[in-house]
């Protein structure tokens, strides 16, 4: 089994990732994911706040791939592994705290944008976005089995 190194962990935590699942018939589905955390050298957690087809696929087929590109470091990775879904216990407490922190940060960023915005339509959109809150429904844990580089950058 390959292990995640520090640059991989940084890429996963600080960029939008793309989670690919597939149905039991092999129909693929890929969606962007921002609530991604690395738990240890071989486990990635993705928090489910809006998943639908992704969860349906996971119930039928636990094979997943997660891709990320770190444009700042010109590095990209694909992680393949097996997923399991946790929807109770300490893991959910941890997910609630993480989502709360990420939402606070997002609100601060939007508030900053609001300061320089003059278009009333955009101001109203940003204000609406600031009101959106997400509640974790589950945590998707990915046990990483294979790692592929999709881009070679400053880390090599
Ligand atoms: C930038 C961005 C980040 C997102 N991050 C998450 C996330 O962390 N968790 C989540 O459940 N949905 C997230 N979504 C929503 C999913 O991409 C997707 O719309 C959702 O899973 C429903 O699609 P599905 O039915 O194919 O699963 C995000 C969407 C965008 C545009």
CATH superfamily of the largest domain: Electron Transport, Fmn-binding Protein, Chain A
- From the coordinates shown, what is the CATH architecture of the largest domain? Roll
Top CATH class of the largest domain: Mainly Beta
The CATH topology of the largest domain comes to Pnp Oxidase, Chain A
Strands, total number: 7
SSE string, helix = H, strand = E?
HEEEEHEEHHE
Helix content: 25-40%
Shape: globular
Mean pLDDT: 95
Major sheet description: 7 strands, antiparallel
How would you write the strand order of the largest sheet? 2-1-5-6-7-4-3
The radius of gyration computed from the alpha-carbon positions, rounded to a whole number of angstroms, is 17 Å
Secondary structure class reads: alpha+beta
Taking the alpha carbons of the first and last residues, their distance comes to 21 Å
Count up the helices: 4
The kinds of small molecule bound in this structure are: flavin mononucleotide
Q: Which residue ranges are poorly predicted, with pLDDT under 50 across at least 5 consecutive positions? A: none
């Amino acid at each position: 089994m390959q292990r995640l190194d520090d640059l991989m962990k940084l890429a996963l935590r600080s960029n939008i990732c793309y989670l690919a699942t597939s149905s039991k018939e092999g129909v693929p589905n890929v969606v962007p994911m921002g609530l991604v955390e690395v738990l240890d050298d071989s486990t990635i957690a993705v928090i489910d706040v809006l998943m639908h087809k992704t969860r349906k696929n996971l119930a039928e087929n636990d094979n997943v791939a997660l891709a990320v590109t770190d444009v700042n470091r010109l590095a990209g990775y694909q992680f393949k592994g097996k997923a399991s879904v946790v929807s109770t216990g300490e893991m959910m407490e941890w997910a609630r705290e993480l989502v709360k922190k990420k939402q606070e940060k997002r609100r601060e960023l939007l508030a900053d944008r609001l300061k320089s915005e003059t278009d009333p339509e955009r101001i109203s959109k940003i204000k609406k976005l600031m009101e959106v809150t997400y509640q974790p429904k589950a945590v998707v844990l990915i046990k990483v089995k294979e790692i592929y580089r999709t881009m070679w950058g400053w880390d090599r």
